[in-house]
Amino acid sequence: MTERVTETGSLLHGLFNSDFDGWLLYRYDELLRAFEGVCNKGTPEGNRRFISMFSDTIKRTIADNNRIIRELEIVLANEVTEEGFISLNRIKYNNLLSINEKAECLIRDLERFKSIKGKQKRESQLTNDVIGLFCHLVAKSDLIPLEDRETAEEYCMRICTKYNLPYTVRVAKALYREGIDLMHLKKLQRLLFPMIDDKTKDSITNYLKSKKFLYE
């Protein structure tokens, strides 16, 4: 996965160094589709790293542009041009403002690719055992207790609905398991932890530490 992200980053870095400003201003929709195509092939974890890396690069460029903009504001305040003419400094100033505006839009638009892209690939790797283990840990950690007279099937279906996970009857069979399969636990951490909220993740993690399945 790391190799793929590095390769993709290199390709887009090449675009960044060549005519990224032009893509921002005149081919914005194509640029978004390029990112979408990359993220459709990735995993949520890899996509988050990739988008964060690229967003940080864009933010540095915005900061560099802002320094030039401030310098140009001083120049333009003292610049005199003939009536009917626009100076090159004014053109550059307006262009940098437009680039920064589109760059900010791109950072916001890319955020959605961190979570929604690669979802099908991730879900196809989530086995019934892993999802069942998740339901088991949610119950054992007292995060979402079983209700009175609630069956394993009803509880697991409720948990899967809450966390937008696929449910089958086989998931419920893992609810009352004894012990934890470390292979399933590692898969749960790799595939499910990036999906869930911090409260759920912390609750499960604290439970696992208390049972010595995880250590500080």
Describe this structure in words.
This protein is mainly alpha-helical. It is built from 11 helices and no strands. Helix 1 packs parallel to helix 3 and helix 3 runs antiparallel to helix 4.
Give the tags:
11 helices, elongated, mainly alpha, 216 residues, single chain
Please describe the topology of this protein.
Elements (H helix, E strand, L loop, with lengths): L1 H25 L1 H13 L3 H35 L9 H24 L1 H4 L2 H7 L2 H13 L11 H11 L6 H4 L9 H10 L6 H13 L6
Number of strands: 0
Low-confidence region ranges: 1-11
Form type: elongated
SSE order, as H and E?
HHHHHHHHHHH
Question: So how many helices?
Answer: 11
Percentage beta strand? under 5%
Based on secondary structure, the structural category is mainly alpha
Query: Helical percent range?
Result: over 70%
Radius of gyration: 25 Å
Provide the residue-averaged pLDDT. Answer: 81
Gap between N and C termini, in Å?
27 Å
Largest sheet: none
